[in-house]
Amino acid sequence: MEFCEDCGSMLKTEGEQWVCRSCGFAKPRDAAAEEAMVTTQGQETSEVADVSAAEDRGLPTTDVHCAECGNDRAYWYLQQIRAADESETRFFVCTECEHRWREDDH
Hints:
It contains two helices and seven strands; from the N terminus they run βββααββββ. The protein is mainly beta. Helix content is 9%, strand content 27%.
């Protein structure tokens, strides 16, 4: 990904050039630099926080029913796993059996 040196907007490719659609800035594409860019699998998938020691992390608790053991208390946290314009997802970890589940707004 390339950014405009003048206004900071993201550049788009047009033929052999990077072009800013905001201010018109253009620069030649560097094929060697583009080949050096690497996307790892970790960058493509979202990471879900590992909360095996939820109590040690100081997570808050709430009253919610665990379907695995029937306990009525769980740690909870919020995490943005979808697009930024969508609401975050609530994750729960049972205080007894550490069963994990999530709750979406959908």
